[in-house]
Design brief:
This protein is of the alpha/beta class. Helix content is 31%, strand content 17%. Bound molecules: 6-chloroguanine. It holds the Pfam family tRNA_m1G_MT.
Length: 250
């Protein structure tokens, strides 16, 4: 899978060299390319922002560097896929083949585990990290002429820019890309994969600082253990995140 990131802080993404995702990149499972938006500027100060039309506080990111950078990435990716052949594809197939361009934004739809599962299946995602008060609206419209565009938020709070959000999204979908996590079974019994929070976990010693591991986990009775864990998931979800429960379980 190919991932392009456009940012004014390319050094921020050195974090992707470490841990599980660093390994996935080394193994060639995820090809991450980071682009400095300022490389597409022409003035001495490498300016990427300007004052907002209509007034107001803060600065808005100018459209030209974005247009040039995204065009170059999409042209390059189209080259990688080769010239269109003579094979007949219907409209739906053509639409699906367009790359996905994601702009992290607190004004976007909320990123969830379902989003992560969907992104893990994409052959190519471009992330555009905005800073300041946002990006000129026409960049989204113009990009949508050749790609699928999504504005995606991590949740209801404000970050200074998209870099942390993109890192979180890549971490969430990257581990779902086949081959990235060694034991795929470890992916299924996690918070949110079945719509519930995960059950509590214990390891040795069986007694620590006067605290015992629940008896059922030492019983070797697999059905009872599974039932206990499911009950713990329901109890925890009901207590901490009741809005996640389907109505019949609430
Ligand atoms: Cl995706 N971007 C920014 N700037 N702030 C956020 C966010 C994204 N998600 C939550 N807050």
């Amino acid at each position: 899978m190919r991932v392009d990131i456009v940012t004014i802080f390319p050094e921020f993404f050195q974090v992707l060299d470490v841990s599980l995702l660093g390994k996935a990149r080394q193994d060639g499972l995820i090809d991450v390319r980071v682009h400095d938006l300022r490389d597409a500027t022409t003035d001495r100060h490498r300016t990427v922002d300007d004052t907002p039309y209509g007034g107001g506080a803060g600065m808005v990111m100018k459209p030209e560097p974005w247009g040039q950078t995204i065009d170059a990435i999409l042209d390059d990716a189209a080259g990688d896929r080769g010239a269109p052949g003579l094979a007949v594809a219907d409209d739906a197939e053509l639409a699906d083949a367009r790359p996905l361009v994601v702009f992290p934004s607190p004004a976007g739809t909320v990123f969830t585990q379902a989003t992560a599962r969907r992104y893990a299946l994409e052959p190519h995602i471009v992330f555009g990290c905005g800073r300041y008060e946002g990006i000129d609206q026409r960049v989204f419209e113009d990009t949508a002429e050749r790609a699928r565009v999504e504005l995606v938020s991590l949740g209801d709070y404000v970050l200074n820019g998209g870099e942390v959000a993109v890192t979180a999204m890549i971490e969430a979908f990257g581990r779902l890309v086949p081959g990235v996590v060694g034991n795929p079974e470890s992916l299924v019994e996690e918070s949110h994969e079945d719509g519930l929070l995960e059950y509590p976990s214990y390891t040795k010693p069986a007694l620590w600082r006067g605290r015992e591991v629940p008896d059922v986990l030492l019983s070797g009775h697999h059905a009872k253990i599974a039932a206990w864990r499911h009950e713990q998931q329901l109890e925890r979800t009901r207590r901490v995140r009741p809005e996640l429960l389907p109505p019949e379980l609430g």
